[in-house]
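Quick illustration, no need to memorize.
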Amino acid sequence: MELRRLDDYQGWQVRLGGASLLVDPWLTPEPITGSFDRQHTAGFITPAQLADEGAAAIGVLLCTHVSDHARPMTLSLLREVSVYGPPRAVRVARRAGCQRTHPVRPGASITLACPDGSRLQVTVTRTGLPLGLIAVGYLIEGRDPDGVTVGRIWIEPHQPTVHVARQQARVDIALLPCSSVRAVVMPVTAGPAAVARAVVAVGAAVIVPTATEPERDMTRWQRALYAVRGGVPATRALVGAPTQLVVLAAGAALDLASIRAGAVATGDAAGE
């Protein structure tokens, strides 16, 4: 079982048993614009690359309908793949032409079969308020053909809470935001302190930051609107042993068998 970063922002892939599960994929070159701007950098994974790799696309998970998570151009290229997400997110997918959409809410369970008889068991988790009104997270558990758990990943790109983290314990990887983003007075993502508390509660072996450098491509007025604090160094300072913090570059992957063996191994495009 592997976790792979699809781009340098917040697109992810989970691979198991010849299957590919995508989370908030952004596989096309168009920039994110609107309330804030984000440009793709070199090295992001494309639909052609995924097709060449040959893994069966068994699902797409969307954390919310907001444009940096639900990318219509990308979704239009995945119209034959089942898409799961909050009701407003799957409406974006349907408008993009996706034919199999499934609205989900916290507590829902999804079973996705892999070609080799393995399966990915997905549980929809509750996001902290206020983003919990429109967003969700996911616990993804890989099981081999005999039903043995081979890896557990908790993805919460917005507001991890200690209460929810305890319900998921223990996990191999916690995929969490390390920068606190506040839009005027509304918190959008948690910062280092909240993430560190959640990591302890969930018992993560490894924390992987998502949505890194959210302010990188913002315009001047967007920087005035969004207050960004913290980041990877601040989070690293708060997350103590035995948890490791691993930053993945676009295209890099973490092997969960290696994590379980006590040796974090990253792909050939490894980050920090």
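Residues 268-272 have pLDDT under 50 and may be disordered.
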